[in-house]
Write a structure and sequence with these properties.
Blueprint lengths: L8 H5 L8 E6 L3 H12 L1 H8 L3 E7 L3 H8 L8 E3 L2 H5 L6 E4 L6 H11 L3 E4 L2 H18 L3 E2 L10 H8 L5 E7 L2 H13 L3 H10 L8 H4 L2 H15 L9 E2 L7 H9 L2 E12 L2 E12 L11 E8 L3 E8 L3 H18 L30 E11 L5 H10 L4 E8 L6 E8 L2 E2 H12 L4 E10 L4
The chain binds L-homoserine.
Length: 458
């Protein structure tokens, strides 16, 4: 039988470097913490061979000791100490690297900063923490000469941070666009393919461990905006600019628009898009129409995918599980392996320690949503008997809105109405809003227009 040399006992014990383990303190034993521990324990020999040394979890801090013991059972044997004091772990002299998996931004920020102050490297999958406090944390890490690695923070199983920092490091990146929230994609897929209601699909995503502790972050686009700001930081050399990301989630999406889009040949996906636009950036998260044949439109369930367009490599696509326990553990362990391998290299060059040189770069100007150009899907509910469709189109044209396709469709609930569905040419959002404002007060046009961006990502 074939024996992978990486898994043989020869690699597991005799190499001199292997006698100096990388000592890990794990904060939290929830979805991410337990997945990380499981991967580290199951693949210990293989990971040691690839790292050149063993990676040993020495301490685990949890909130509830009894619950953790009951939940983890055998996984906590073998020299792993369980405690309920995270501060003692980050300050412990026998810990080289702190893996933060407790989530949130308050306690996590304080613990991570303390770990750095204590001269410990940090690995985290906490996108909220880095999107909101990344500049402070990276600067502290650089000053102390330690690494903050966060592969698990974005599109968990996909090594996209490493792809941007290493594989594509010779490229000028023009744009990236991705499905980067597994929960939203899972909900959209379950609603479309299984006819599930929104609440039922969300409950299932929570049961499977995909959703954030506060699932509003998933469905309102906030989690995707956190991740987009980290992707943009790596792609464009800016600090994370989460506050500037234009953010819309799937919570305001109506089923009727998903159906109409499908009839017109489009799928609807929650995309995060970051694009160079002259000296500024577009940073946006929103439900987006994509042609059904587009590769990103084929990404279903909790899967994620990120398309990157750069000057030398052209267009590349990265696909994989976007949520899950061991899927995130896989990324956290990859960061630990990097750390174990590169401990002798200058901190600023380690992977993927610092997204940028703090202080050396300024935040990029980010375009207002109104100035961002794309095609649009527009639904206007109109009086079936009184409206003059040519008049509506004429008014929109007068305001600079050119329509590439128009359909008049039955209203799903009200037989006295029709849905006027328009696909526009590429234009600025504020031009469209001005034009829609001009027709929306007509008595024959009812309610607010539903507007979704349409991208071809060519
Ligand atoms: N709640 C996140 C998602 C988990 O659904 O994508 C992984 O970051």
């Amino acid at each position: 039988m074939y024996q992978d040399p990486l898994e043989s006992s020869h690699y597991g014990g005799t190499h001199t470097a292997l006698s100096i383990p990388l000592r890990v303190g794990l904060l939290g034993l929830g979805t991410v913490g337990s997945g990380t521990l499981a991967v580290l324990q199951r693949n210990a020999a293989l990971i040691a061979a690839r790292s050149g040394r063993r990676i040993e979890v020495r301490q685990v801090a949890v909130r509830d000791l009894e619950r953790a013991r009951a939940r983890m059972g055998a996984a906590l044997q073998g020299g792993v100490q369980l405690c309920d004091d995270a501060w003692s772990v980050v300050r412990h002299p026998d810990i080289d690297v702190v893996v933060e998996t407790i989530g949130g931004t308050t306690a996590a920020r304080a613990l991570v900063l303390e770990a750095i102050a204590q001269g410990k490297h940090v690995v985290t999958a906490n996108k909220a923490l880095l999107a909101e406090h990344g500049s402070e944390i990276f600067a502290a890490a650089q000053a102390r000469g330690v690494v903050v690695a966060y592969e698990g923070a974005v599109a968990v199983s996909i090594p996209i941070i490493k792809a941007l920092r290493e594989g594509l490091s010779g490229n000028r990146i023009e744009w990236l666009a991705g499905i980067i929230n597994g929960t939203s994609n899972f909900i959209l897929t379950a609603m479309r393919e299984q006819g599930m209601g929104f609440a039922q699909a969300l409950a299932l995503a929570q049961e499977k461990g995909y959703a954030e502790a506060d699932p509003a972050f998933d469905v309102q686009g906030v989690d995707a905006a956190h991740k987009l700001s980290l992707l943009a930081a790596n792609a464009f050399g800016t600090p994370p600019q989460f506050a500037q990301v234009h953010t819309e989630g799937i919570d305001r999406l109506e089923g009727v628009d998903v159906d109409f889009a499908q009839r017109l040949g489009y799928g609807v996906k929650l995309l995060g898009i970051a694009r160079r636009c002259g000296d500024a950036l577009e940073l946006r998260v929103h439900p987006t129409l994509l042609p059904q044949g587009h590769l990103l439109a084929q990404v279903h369930g909790s899967m994620n995918a990120i398309m990157v367009h750069s000057d030398a490599a052209g267009t590349t696509l990265f696909y994989g599980a976007g949520a899950g326990s061991e899927q995130t553990g896989s990324a956290v362990v990859a960061d630990l392996v990097d750390l174990a391998r590169s401990a002798q290299v200058a901190a600023a060059l380690r992977v993927p320690a610092l997204a940028f040189q703090p202080g050396a770069v300024r935040p990029a100007p980010v375009l207002d949503d109104g100035a961002v150009r794309s095609a649009f899907y527009v639904r206007l509910d109109v009086d079936r008997f009184e409206v003059s469709v040519p008049q509506v189109l004429q008014q929109l044209a007068l305001e600079g809105v050119r329509v590439q396709r128009m359909e008049v469709l039955a209203h799903p609930q009200d037989s006295t109405l029709r849905c006027l569905v328009l696909l526009t040419e590429v234009l600025r959002r504020d031009t469209l809003d001005t034009a829609l404002a001009a027709v929306q007060h007509w008595p024959t046009v009812l309610g607010q227009a539903q507007v979704l961006r349409l991208e071809t990502l060519g």
